[in-house]
Amino acid sequence: MLNILYIGVGGFIGAVSRFLLSRYINNLLPSFPFGTLTVNILGSFILGFIIYSVSLGRNISPEMRDFITIGMLGGFTTMSAFAYESFRLMELNQMMLFALNITLNVFLCIAAVYAGKELAVMIAK
Known about the structure:
Order of helices and strands: HHHHH
Low-confidence stretches: none
């Protein structure tokens, strides 16, 4: 039961962090959903780093791992926002921005997981 509380608190922190960071970035660059892109890349990087750190022997308690990966990152990353914003670009017939948004989110987030893994490997040495 305590683990569920950790995940819930992490989700709260992640959701509020997503809202603040995404809103800040979107206010700076309003023509494209850079806020969502940023939180997706950052969340992917942190997830890759945490998961691969654990697999490389870093001692993180299961409660802390769940707090960060399920709670914070689950609340922080914004796949539903990404899907809506992509659909909205398509609906507005902004096909170049639609394709760019999907391409950047998918490939940069996969690259961020890889970068997180590489950082974890580098630190483990």
